[in-house]
Fold each of these.
Amino acid sequence: MDPARFFAASRVLIVAGKGGVGKSTMSAALARTAARAGMSTMLVRLTPGGPISRLFAAPELTGLEQTLHAGGGPSGDADVRGRLVTPDEALAEYLADHGLARITRRLMSTGAIDVVTTAAPGIRDLLVLGRVKAFEASRTADLIVLDAPAAGHAVSFLQSPTGLRGAVGAGPIATQADDVLEMLADPERCRVMLVTLAEETPVNEVIETAFALEEEIGVALGPVIVNGLVPVPEGLADDFDARIAASTAKISATEIANLRDAAAFRLQWAARQNEQVTRLSQSLPLAQLHTPYVFTTEPGPPELETLSNALSIGIDALSEDDA
Amino acid sequence: MTSLATLLEQQTVIVCVGAGGVGKTTTAAALALEAARRGRRVCVVTIDPARRLSDAMGFDPDRAIGNEPQQIDVAATGELWAVMLDTSTTFDALIRTYAPSEEQAQNILTNDFFRNIADSMSGAHEYMAMEKLYELHNDERFDLVVVDTPPTSNAIDFLEAPDRITRFLDHRLYKVLVTPTGGLARVVNFAAQGFLRTVARIVSASVVDDAIEFFATFDGMEEGFRGRAVAVHDLLIAEDTAFVLVTVPRNDTVDDAAAFIETLATADIAVDAIVVNRVHPSFGSERLDGLADGPLAPFITVLHDSQTVAVGQDTVLATLTNELPAGAVVKIPFLDTDVHDLEGLASLAQWLTPEGTP
């Protein structure tokens, strides 16, 4: 499937996954992949920090929109822009919009605002989703990519409108909840993409989260991204001793042992990942996109392009039904 | 010099801290098991363990109701107990402890606003984890309590949450509403009433009524809660309490960990040991660039990848571990840490104390 069509299928992509699986990195890579397919993209994050600024070699995200990667030029790339929407700010803004502008700051500092968030749990999450919905409605970008809270929280995050809808009766919050629910239920407006690693616990968790999202929220799920797959270069599984014999290079016994051990480790690692990939495809009827392990502790723009290439290739290989 | 093994033998409380997804829960369980093998009577408090870990430890989810420790059947000279934290039940028990009458307790426990606090208020998990820790610390069945902390974005939530929530329960919003006032306080009162009216308009009046009713019922219990929060805080900063930071050798996680250490230091808490999970093995440092085109090419590529990761992770970790004595930093190799059963937990425990179990 053509990436441009894949990313045009819905205007909001919510990216969710367990801590440590590369959820934010994948949000960045998806945004970049969509921009390469010519779609202007806005990346929204809920907490400061994280890998996004390093990946784009850009300043830290703030509440003000900034350009993370400028498009244009012969490639036909579109822009990637990014901003923070923090739950506390969303709440403060909402209260200010509803006639509490003068005392909001003091209410925040005295903790009175906690009374509101406790009386109506999930109100902050709902208001964040409300902001995303407003971006979507105003067509501020062709695609909005939301780097959602970590997996377990992703379910409660997306459940916030349902939960509140029951608690609050009629009023502005109820209206807000209805609007967000409408967006979540419409696959042409919103899809969730889950990210996992090919390891035991993350795979279990992504399966649980996928079913919970489908059953409890009814949001459409896109393909699952399996991140961190270690490549096996061609020839690595061949007979090492034969290759050593064929090599004319001067090489010490220690070096031979190191090469042998490193290859054995890599093959074992890849085999374990394969088992988990198979288990995931048997347990979860969703297409998979595979992204490679990047051999650096400091991923930056080159790694972002590598990951984005892998996503493009994976999306190209999807059938119409998969997407 | 304090090694992790010494901590397991001598401390009475071990708190495991760190970001989500670094293997904190599994590490806490392995530390507890190793301490039990060293003859101690240990209880580990885990929060939301992965299913396989809880199965491995022999948790029976049906028996887990009531939030009571269950003894785990392990080969050890000591004892291993485990409890899966249930925030809601723990909070209810605390209310029962401090309510002057059963009737008042019931009024609170059935109040919707209180249920929101116990089930979903931010910090409630942290507060109850520390509360459970305090309770088990004073339980004479155990001489060591190992506690896992919830994955959190704010490093010292577990330290601050008890105090923050206690202050919230004692919220003056209620006081200004019911206390006859004059002067400056009257302005606050007026603002608070306006505030509540607006909130009622936004979310609904019944929600606000529940909140006011809760504060009215809770009135008078804050003393007990405050005293308890102070006692919990004192336990956390006591000499016999050790902090073990769990991390992985990735730069963003290590940055988080470094920030964590700094924040803890502002509360006069030092990290006593660091467990680094998922450490990649090193296969020598010799670069074999000259051979990259021959029949060994794929092998050279893989060796170089490994070296890049090994060198990178050492650099990233150095900033974190330089301050600590060698025995207080433990590195757990990648691929050996996927724990499915008690045996897996036992082999992880061996990595935690490389000098072996005495």
Note: Residues 167-220 of chain B form one domain.
Amino acid sequence: MATDQMLARRKLLNVAGAALAALSLATAPALARDTVKIAFIGPLTGGNSATGLGGRNSASLAVDLHNAKPDAKYTYELVPFDDECKPNVGVQVATKAASDKSIIAGITHYCSAVAIATVDTYNRFGLPVVVWGAVLPEITYGNDYKEIHRVNGTMINEGKMAAEFLTKQGFKTFVVIHDTTDYGKGQNKYFAENLKPQGGEILATFPVPPDQQDFTAELTKVKELKPDVVFIGGLTPLGVRVRSQMDRLGIPAQLAGVSGIMSAGFIEGAGPAAEGTVSFHNGAPLTKYADGKAFMDAYAKAGYREDPDAYGPFAFSAANLIMDAIEKAGPDRKKVRDILNTTKGYKALVGEINFDDHRQNIVSANVYVSQDGKWVYWPDSAYATGTKKLPGKAASN
Amino acid sequence: MDPGLLAQYLFNGLMLGTIYAIVAVGFSLFFGVLDVIKFSHGDVVTVGAFSAFGAAGLMAALATLSGPLALAVGLIAALGAGALSGVIIGRLLVLPLKNAPGVNVLLATLMAGTVLREAIRLGVPNGGNPKPFPALLPEGVLKAGSFSVGIDSVIILLAGLAVVLATHLVITRTRLGLSIRAVAQDEEVAQLAGVSFNRTVLGTFALGSMLAGLAGLMLGLYYREINFNMGVMLGIIGFACAVVGGLGSLIGPIIGGFLFAGVQTLVTVVLPFTSAYKDVVAFAVIIALIGLFPTGLIAEKSSERV
């Protein structure tokens, strides 16, 4: 309901923005620009909606900014779809978007389980898409579909970074709790693979359904095993539940999780218990990007209710990448796809975008820690300077 | 195994079992008095949780309430909303279909459950998202060696057990309980003896649904998070517990609830890597038990199964 209203309001804002842009253009020779539609698909409701709405707002901001450019050839319209982070819903909305011939390209999916389920659909309908948040490697590497691109990194980078970082911090024993979707299983695989060479030991692995509510049985087992770190391979709801139930059972271990838990929703849901949780994400903080401040200012000025969240900058970059391709090739899916395919050295908010032969952007992962109710870039945190101690370390001393 | 950890497992199992038992007792009450299965029961749990959430949130916004007072408001809201939805479902769906085949009531209430669920999802602002439930109980952790429980968990557990006991007393010691038992045994004779049938049925629905509302509040307090589809699985588990324990009896569903929770906990303890399959194992045990004891572990005394 609220989302609908917001969408309506956003649409109104878009119209108002377009009207303003038109007014400001009135002095220039007024040319009627064709409207080109781009789809945005992500979780707009459900436990992962904080990330989804942040991505939607960021993409919508990119569109508004682009429309305000006087030399743009087309007026762009963002059509948002809600995949609810569910593969079956995702395939439905993907089909809806892909079969709509007026939609030229898509900025698609945060949830890996949804993104992997929809690649065939985009290929079949020939809709070029740029994935803005899902990290499962197979989305790009598991097929050779020319339609699928990705601006964010994969969980291979994340798992490697997690294993290296945590062992370097002196943690030796680990318990993994991961959900049984492709996302959780993949995260578990890449973390475990990279942990062994680093000398870390996994004491137990708990595969759990993504909507499981009660973790007391698993966590009591964890308590018995006394690991240094509990590693989460799952999304925000799983992270929140495990984090708060760890407290209840008095488990002193360090909590670390993949980028799936790195959201405002995690900090809100887990409350003070979130403090000191470590996460790994393939984006750097906005302030580290050359245009980060400009993005934040524009975002604040646009007055969105939700934060851009961890993947907003990627959605923003994906939107710009697509619009620039359409500017070059015109509103033609095939031509846009070919231009996207050959992206090299494209200057985006999240840094240079270079697609490899599987149309996967090459990026490295970063470490973050939850500090005073925010996710803080590790090198900038009080934990890195030593003024604060990670909860897992404080307990072992 | 370390006795502290053993106690921890036991406590976890008891906690889950209490919640399952409270839900299962509701199923059993409805079946006992009217031989119907009310499948919206799980969603009434959700209604209870959201009512308590809304009431506590609203009161907190209007005035700063102390913990116990906010809790009382939440409790009244959960019980009230539960009872109200139970009476409405009973009045509008169950009583009119009294002479229809039982499967009609089952279907009608199943759909009523979907209506309740979707109403919450669409009617509550951002209802599709999980909501952090306020911590209304005193914080703090009790520790003894490797055993540690939150004070709030202990309160919830004790309250749950007290409620189960109170329900037993209502059924065995009060006028309403007497008429419930009378109608359950023989509806016509009960009416001849001056027991109002409709009032007894609605009373049963109010009682059972109040339990569901309470279970919703307890879940919210325990997990500190509620969402619109939390009742679906719980309803199925509660129903399974009631069937395996013996639909129509009071002690049967309680045993069923603890049994189910016990199996779930045991699976995770003994074989950690099968943790994802704990529901599969628990339901398989239920199927086996239903095969062995078709009328439930504790059969209804006046068995008139068709």
Note: The first strand of chain B starts at residue 131 and ends at 132.
Amino acid sequence: MAYDILLTIMTMVFALMVVFSKKTVVAAFSLLMTLLSIAMIYFQLGTVFLAAIQVLVNAGAIAILFVFVMMLINLEQFQNNRERSKSKLIISILTTLIILGVFSLIINNNIEVLSAVNISDNSMKTLFDKLFTEYYLPFEMATVLLLAALVACIVITGSEKGIKQEQEKLQENLNE
Amino acid sequence: MLEAIIEIIIKTAVIMAFPLGALPLIIHVERRGAAFIQKRVGPNRVGPFGLLQPLADVAKFMFKEEVHPSHVRPFFYSAAPLIALVVALLPLACIPIMGPFQFFDRTVYPEVFRSDMGIFFAFAASALGSYGILLAGWASNNKYTMLGALRACAQMVSYELSLSTAVVAMIFIFGTNDIHLMVDWQTGYWFGFIPKWGVFVQPVAAMLFLVGIFAESNRLPFDLAEGESEIVAGYHLEYSSMKFAIFFMAEYVHMIALSALFIIMFFGGYSVLPGLDLIPLSNPFILPLLQVTSLTIKIALMIWFFVWVRWTFPRFRYDQLMNLGWERLLPLGIVNLIITVLFVYFRNQ
Amino acid sequence: MSSIYYYLAGFLFTLGLLGTIFKKDLISILLCLELMMGGVSLLIILFSRSTGLLDAQLLVFFMIIVSACEVAIGLSLIIALHRKKQTIYTDDIKIITE
């Protein structure tokens, strides 16, 4: 119980830091910490496989991509100008209240169903038996999607025209 | 409950004392090995054969003045070395140093975190290894550190791919993710004298994994993150005294953890070395002892191999490194994986 | 007694949604999208606990794959935009309204 509350507070603090930190790099590292705490929650809930995948893919690859791109495009020149307005604040509070209200309604009305915990056989073998028999088509589609994303990234960023334009602009800046 | 907590504390202490205690010795071996390869004498003044030199170094690091530059980002500057060390120690939690043994009618598993997908967790933890370096490079607020960090990060992410293809191929061969079962598979002999190690089944995967280890731990043929001739010292340029020493420790611990994983997959893990298994098992405690000795000898040989390579090969150029990773090793790994999968499929038919 | 996690998932989703709406630079928007993704996958796992089916875990596994693709393509679009316009602000790229 205490462990649950501790994990929840940790995740909430890091998630708030993602949105409210002044520097975007700090926000990216907070996102990494949020993803790692979500992985810990998965672990606590007994889904060990997902915890491993979350650490391996989300924390090990996605967050690194974010930080890498931030360092490549030199974010220091873009100050995070956060203008505060009353309408924004009111909208935010209203949205949060509405969504959390809906959540508490749903949970309190179905508390018997939701509090029942039947964890079935959770081992790697049963999970992967299911993945490679029942879900083999989505799995193949996911691999195709990954390949398409790979090609798309190379086409979008690696075009020689774009790189030439950037080099010319850099040269102009240097000449000035 | 109390028993479990005490057990975990003892395991953690052992698994952390093992690499951290071996560090001074490894550094000594590195220096003397370099001297041996280059026909020099090496450190030989402090103590017999210079064995106390690492202790003198530690004392020097501790009492040196700590220079804290004024242009850094203070919190991340201090946090980066600790993150690097902790992340380097994490994969060791999943690595068993001996087989499960009976201790007063209960079976004790020697790894801190026991799971049926231990190898996954070890690699997930080792995938976080670039964060310490990236943070250090960014927090130091210096062009050279930033370049070094970006180089290290790109290199680690690229070589993780070919390394993973090797791991997946080995998982197909073993048919399991459990480290103990992997080691069981590799115990025994073919034709009575060849040990059943993974390296004889999958030499290509072993080669890929070995190259991957060098790139992941930023060791010499691939140590572009700290290429002295181009970017001064890379990511740890602004660090001095104990903080620099912690980065140094993190690099060596990462090396030990990755070599332990390599040995588990390709050289039989803690399975007893040929020759040592002739000793009769008269006492139930002899087998775990032999297993720990075998693993230590194997890791020591790996570390010597690291030193040997470091003082033999020149450094790669950066585009050569990237071409090697993406255009040679990754296609080779994928072809190897496809052949392995077909082989396993037709064997199981 | 893990019902506190339901509220956490809702909170993560709301925070990500508000950040996506109000943030001005594209990288922060992508970060907030990741937060929303985290909240949703946590909620799926929580709901699956009462049925005990393994399908939810596989669904979240596929979601993680898709979000990896999404982040990779989004970041490469940001780099391409930065090359062309030297900006990452959403206010500077409303060509279609001008």
Note: The CA atoms of residues 169 and 338 of chain B lie 9 Å apart.
